[in-house]
Design goal:
13 helices, eight-stranded mixed sheet, 10 strands, about 300 residues, about 40% helix, binds calcium ion, binds beta-D-ribofuranose, alpha/beta, Inosine-uridine Nucleoside N-ribohydrolase, Chain A
Length: about 300
């Protein structure tokens, strides 16, 4: 049976690759895609979700608009990485497919509660605002969701927005804290794992020479996004964060991690959004997440390429 998945996202090209990897897999049924503000404001992320679905010729997938701002603070965006639209680097056609009238958080609640327990996985590729709101709207949700696989957080790699915080966690730490304390099963993909599967020039070329429509377009988008990381990390090092979540669903054996306690710093001006991970069990706090530490990089990209090759 296919895995039933709801994707919550703030595209960004790496979000786009994650969505397309799910759409190209015969093992995944995408029940809906929810947009959240993050990399860029909501009107851009909502448009980018629809651009990706139309590129994949999947106008049948329902799209929902979620939060325009984090739960308790102003929105911090990342145009400095992805450009003004979030998809600078390739001019995809203006999308025409509709946005559903239901709020993303209500859709998540309704969809999860209307299906048998523990059948739906949430892939969260941005700040956790929509997901936290859904868990708040119906507390039974935490028991009903199969798992939330979230790209977020950082440990020994340090942060990518501040020395302590990863972007998705930094943007809405209150939402991350709510999700992690809700009792829901969380798999967390921190920078420590995404930095172990870099997008090299060779790997971008494999997108470009794929022989379909989607691969070369994403080669352009990823090349634009890569410029920022190249300057930051040195030549030929650029993480492709969000697809780790979808690849985890398809081939968890490529990854390794530990079941641990994770708490989110929400008050310190210096370390807001830090994921405080109790690797050594030095506290008696409850283990609330499986935190992934390592991935087989070649295996990871092979899963992505395999999915992409099935797309138009
Ligand atoms: C995360 O932040 C965003 O810029 C990416 O899309 C990814 O979700 C990495 O820190
Ligand atoms: Ca993202």
């Amino acid at each position: 049976m296919k895995k039933q998945v709801i994707i919550d996202t703030d595209p960004g090209p790496d979000d786009g690759v994650a969505i397309l990897t799910a759409l190209g897999s015969p093992m995944i049924e995408v029940l809906g895609v929810c947009a959240v503000a993050g990399n860029v404001p909501l009107h851009h992320t909502l448009r980018n979700v629809r651009k990706v679905l139309e590129l994949a010729e999947r106008q049948d997938v329902r799209v929902f608009a979620g939060a325009e701002a984090p739960l308790a603070r102003p929105l911090f965006t990342a145009e400095y990485v992805h450009g003004k639209t979030g998809f600078d680097g390739y001019d995809l056609p203006e999308p025409s497919m509709p946005v559903q009238s239901q709020h993303a958080a209500d859709f998540i609640v309704e969809e999860v509660m209307s299906r048998p327990p523990r059948t739906i996985t949430l892939c969260a590729l941005g700040p956790l605002t929509n997901v936290a709101s859904a868990l708040e709207r119906d507390r039974r949700l935490a028991e009903r969701i199969e798992q939330i696989v979230w790209m977020g957080g950082a440990s020994s790699e340090g942060g990518n927005v501040t020395p302590a915080a990863e972007f998705n966690c930094y943007v809405d730490p209150e939402a991350a804290a709510r999700v992690l304390s809700s009792g829901v099963r969380v798999v967390m993909m921190p920078l420590d794992v995404t930095h172990k599967a870099h997008m090299t020039t060779d790997r971008v070329e494999r997108f470009r020479t794929m022989g379909n429509k989607v691969g070369p377009i994403f080669a352009e988008l990823l090349t634009y996004a890569k410029q920022f990381d190249w300057q930051k990390y040195g030549a030929d090092r650029a993480p492709l964060h969000d697809p780790t979540t979808v690849v985890w669903l398809l081939q968890p054996g490529l990854f390794s991690g530990l079941h641990v306690n994770v708490e989110i710093e929400t008050t310190s001006p210096l370390t807001t959004g830090m994921t405080v991970i109790d690797w050594w069990g030095v506290t008696s706090r409850q283990k609330n997440a499986y935190v992934v530490q390592d991935v087989d990089g070649d295996g990871f990209y092979n899963v992505i390429f395999e999915s992409f090759r099935r797309l138009p």
